[in-house]
Amino acid sequence: MEVVFSLISLTVTKALQISGLVDNRNVLRTRKMEEKALEVYDVIRSIRDPEKPSTLEELDVVTEKCVEVQELAEDEYLIIIKFSPTVPHCSLATLIGLCLQVKLQRCLPFKHKLEIYISEGTHSTEEDINKQINDKERVAAAMENPNLREIVEQCVTEPDD
């Protein structure tokens, strides 16, 4: 019986591949992930740098290519962001990661899991910072600090908000 089901499954798979239905589904899924990535990018591009009067987009800290979205389940996504600090010894990289976390948690209208990393080779302590900005307890503790919370608010709030 298992052999029969395997043959039927193989036949159906081949028929779908020949008809182009499988490829169309993959194209639609890929397009959907690209649209979600652009939606995420639109949220983070306007975050202001903690030190400079520029946005993360203007400083090339975030770009469209730094955002990846994967579907975990129906209407649930994994968002991976790899940002690049302006200098390898940037003392505010952790704060930038915190701003990304806060803005995305507030603004994304769909269910998601979030992973934020410093792009490989762009910071001298990237491993330590990556651990900090993806640790929910550390993020929550940081946002309890009124001074830090005020800085984050200034960075993530739109000028006309």
From TrEMBL:
GO terms for biological process: chromosome segregation; protein maturation. Keywords: Chromosome partition. Belongs to the MIP18 family. Monomer and homodimer. Component of the CIA complex. Interacts with CIAO1. Interacts with IREB2. Interacts with APAF1. Transmembrane segments: none annotated. This is Cytosolic iron-sulfur assembly component 2A.
